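Ticket reopened. Same input as before:
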Amino acid sequence: MYRYDEFDDRFVRERVASFRSQVERRLSGALTEDEFKPLRLQNGLYLQLHAYMLRVAIPYGTLNSPQMLQLAMIAERWDKGYGHFTTRQNIQFNWPKLQDVPAILEALADVGMHAIQTSGNCIRNVTADHFAGAAADEIEDPRPTAEILRQWSSGHPEFAFLPRKFKIAVTGSPNDRAVTKAHDIGLRMVRNAAGEPGYEVIVGGGLGRTPMIGKVIREFLPKADLLAYLESVLRVYNLYGRRDNKYKARIKILVHESKLETIRAEVEAEFERLMAEEAGPTRALSAAEVARIEAYFAPPAFDDLPDSDAGLEAALAADQDFRAWVKTNIVAHRQSGYRIVTVSIKPIGKAPGDASADQMRALADIAERYSLGELRVSHEQNIVLPHVRAADLPEVFACLQKADLATANIGLITDIIACPGMDYCALATARSIPVAQDIANHFNSPALAAEIGKLQIKISGCINACGHHHVGHIGILGLEKGGIESYQITLGGDATETTAIGERAGPGFAYDEVVPAVRRLVDAYLALRTDANETFLQTYRRLGAAPFKAALYPADIGGSGSGAGGGWPKAKAGPSLSASAQVQQAAHSQYVFYHF
Amino acid sequence: MSKTPALQVVTANDLLNGDVVFLSSGGCWRRELQHATLVRTSGDADFLMAQAAQHEAYVVGPYLAEVTQDDAGRLEPVHYRERIRTLGPSNRPDLGRQAEGLAEVAHVPL
Amino acid sequence: MPIVTDSGFVFADETDALLSLDAMLSGGGDPAGGLEIANDTDPRDLVPHFEAVGLIAVTFPNFADGRGFSLARRLRALGYKGRLRAKGHVISDQYPMARACGFDEVEIDETLAARQPEQHWLAVATRSGHALQARA
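Engineering reply: fixed in the latest deploy. New output:
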């Protein structure tokens, strides 16, 4: 994997010094809060409900054992002993203090990490397929491209104050695990008729308030032209993107309002100008530079092994738990005798994506011993051990069990994506984590989860859709209605290469009606599917939304106020009643909540 | 238990540690909701918000939040967002001010 | 009004002489003393005047509006070789960005200069800031 050279090291150290100075100048009054805010955001620092939050970049989700150990150290020394892995392959610390942040950034720099551009109206941390370099279906490794983009976009002088944030994702496999069609720019590594490597460039995708599937702006972009072309897209966006309304400021709105053809023509014209320029910072990407970066991602020293292993087979035959875990959490590796292990950070009933410092250390140790020192963070908020020998799987499983990380639920109903929601986030309109916990607790029987099969539930606590609810098979969006939490359900979303935006099912549900509603959907699916091989999404696509909507809103539930007519029973107007409704709701759940 | 509607307090986050704070008597910012200065009229609200705006060196993003007061004088936030903000994450009772016993602070009339 | 350069603040009174784009295009003055343009100006309109213009000042209505950076890059790409100034709400942390995008200098008002004095700008004037692009 990539290792910082002196340029990277100088760059991140300089940024730490800059941020230290910015904090000092904020305290002295030289910078107003309005001026300081975008500067701190571009260094990953938010101010959330209870505290600051630092979002650390894990570029294209790749990290090594020493880096994971350092994250554990940071969690313990400057935070509250845990971190939260996010849907953008980052990690967030929820409780840092402003004056400690320069020291945290320094500690990150010590292991070749940073928090640069994990927020703000700039080019964000570039994401990629979390199985890159290991996947059996990979055409080309997307990580060199993602690293080139990281270097190009980090501290880019022209694009630090864009109309809005800008997200880029790269995939090198036909099976898209990077959700490239839901990014401002998605890059799919392809080859042209002559067999030359390049990219299909997708623009204007995104979730959020106005979900849109990206459109192909360039069918084939030669590799050498990557930076000049992206610079052209960004320049056109920076100049013409809307700045009058933050909800209409993403490039998807520019593409939608100005039409793809217009934007394409503008970009191509800009691209031509750039290529004609005598001396610009970008121009063509030299083959030497590409080769230099690619060398970092050369395949590790795999052993020459038979694909099957007698010890593994014996363990599979002997241990039912192990068998279940292998079935759900292991996928094929490109190298014979190796497997890709996905470690679930969704133990039943725990906050999705939260890992304690102890768990991070356990993961670092397991990766060091069994995965050539490498780990990945997936946008599904799980951790991947990319290069595990098949023969080592029983030991890896035993180690994970000790760390409470052996949950066998990858891709199943309890492997829920959830944003932090209102338990942490200043933008949230409702809670997400407790909803995920309640659903996971309800479906905690492994047999039931296995019977249900592949089913992705994705939960967002506001319209910004960090929990990707639009592309969940079942999406849940938490909103506020009349002073209480209200959850909208969408159906049929798809985050893969057959990307689809889920359809809104109908009126929202009160907090404690979400689990029963999901249960009704699942029961309907189990009754409707042709056989156990037909997944929820397949059944939905075959039958459409109608039978699922009928299950969600049966006529005989909830009395007069229920169903498509008027939504679920609402608390009457007035603060005291809505508060008591909340107390009642708290009594339903396991959480100590509204007591003063 | 009767509650008086339309009571407000001014809340913000501490610039240095990000902690939730409330504008209290003498223009001090305190962590305890029970110490917050109560706002009953729009004139009071304007006055306190103007005062808060002068405190950019100490706090970030001051705004008005609605509270109720029971017969014993205890203040409670109305909106669930403010309840979570005042207590800590609802899924982690071991974290935030709910874990510090801050809820035990008695109301001090202002 | 202070003008920030790599060597610090320069105080000049030439700013009054800046011509608006409309005035120049309607022949209402000599652009040799300088031209002031908004950040949504189409730079292609200026190409015929590049030789005659002594200075182009691009206004920054707010530091968070980054259009000026791209406009500067476009002006340079179109062949403008004269002095280029960022004028308005530009904060000291943005100075290296402005320089990297083709600006020669930054003009700020007295209030901002009082808040962000010369040493703040000098502290970042030599910062590469974009070392990674420089390598690639």
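The CA atoms of residues 3 and 107 of chain C lie 4 Å apart. Helices of chain C lie at 21-25, 67-77, 95-100, 110-115, 118-125, 131-135. Please confirm and we'll close it.
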